[in-house]
Amino acid sequence: MVNRRELNPESSPEAAYGARVRRLREDRGWSQEDLAGKVAYSSQHISAVETARKPPTLPFSRKADLVFGTGSSAESFEREWRDMRHGVLLEGFPEYVGYEGRAVEIRLFEIGLIPGLLQTPEYARALADGDVWRGSITPGQADERVSFLAERQATLARPRPPMMLVVMDESCLHHAVGGPDVMAAQLQRLAEVASLPNWMLQVSPFGIGARRSFNLPLYLLTLSDRTVMSYAESAQQGHLERETTCVLPLLTAYHQLQAEALSQAESVALFHQLRKGLP
Are 279 and 222 in contact (CB under 8 A)? Predict the structure, then answer.
């Protein structure tokens, strides 16, 4: 075959996906034009997916499952696409996000970094680029991570948005991400969000010491039926807890944390103070 590009399926999830499309296509004796006609995409698109020059999409994956008959099997292209999409996320987090999008109240506590739902695109990109630099994710996965966060943020813009209660450890504000311009815009973003009627932002100051309720980030969700669940992460995985007897003590501890934290007015004043102090 002229100009056939050989692939290393182990080089990336996209390359593995493309190699499998090519293998199944060739097993059936189809050309790229043949497959293009069956999935209603151009042959150039097929070539780009097979050679990992273009990432697969959900619509493409579903059509590939139809023509290859893989839709109801463990070899589903849609399943592979979802694994790729969530491959840079901790186990358990996609499940949490599904509930987050339906919650009527969201309580967050974060240490070290601005909570994702409050991050500017530039701050989120700087974090993702840092992970690329360390070699923990690929540039394509960094794009997916930033896009996924934008989708989470967009779900908050509903006709009846959830009540957002956020307590940030003071370390979140001092951990420099992306340089002074990025941090200045991020601090301004926090001040702007605090003025919205459904947001309450508070800072847990260093001075509260051992009275801080949590030593790890924690998310608490309340659904429309008043079900409460919690989500917490270790370095390897996330855990969604639905058992009321386990979640209610966390809710109590969160209320105690709010009582110890700076008021929203004091927190906003701190945002402005730190922003003015940037070089």
Answer: no
